[in-house]
Specification:
Elements lengths: L1 E6 L2 E4 L4 E9 L6 E7 L6 E7 L4 E3 L7 E6 L4 E6 L8 E8 L4 E3 L3 E6 L1
Parallel strand pairs: 2-11
Antiparallel strand pairs: 1-3, 3-8, 4-5, 4-9, 5-6, 7-8, 9-10, 9-11
């Protein structure tokens, strides 16, 4: 069984920064990709960023140049550094982990941008 636990959420002002972390634990083998999705109130869950075990990353157009994803393979941890946050970044952020056979999700963590 695999568990993903997100941390680092909270409230920041527009233009501020926030760093999310996600730690994976349990029976983890052959992690191919870890990433982040988000879901704003009244909207569907959307892709934010992802990174492969080898360090290749990709981003949603809406966050390119503002968000940076990174990972520590030894710690089974993925990070999301969010800079220059906008009101539309307010959402519940979910971590996901992909292996060749399965996809796992964290419970999500709130990230809110205030005026």
């Amino acid at each position: 069984q695999v568990q993903l636990v997100e941390s680092g959420g909270g409230l920041v002002q527009a233009g501020g920064s926030l760093r999310l972390s996600c730690v994976a634990s349990g029976s983890i083998f052959n992690i191919s990709r870890m990433g982040w999705y988000r879901q704003a109130p009244g909207k569907q869950r959307e892709f934010v960023a992802a990174i492969t075990r080898g360090g290749l990353s990709n981003y949603a157009d809406s966050v390119k140049g503002r968000f940076t994803i990174s990972r520590d393979n030894a710690k089974n941890t993925v990070y999301l550094q969010m800079n220059y946050r906008k009101h539309e970044d307010t959402a519940v952020y979910y971590c996901d982990l992909n292996t060749p056979l399965s996809t796992y999700w964290g419970r999500g963590i709130q990230g809110t941008v205030s005026s």
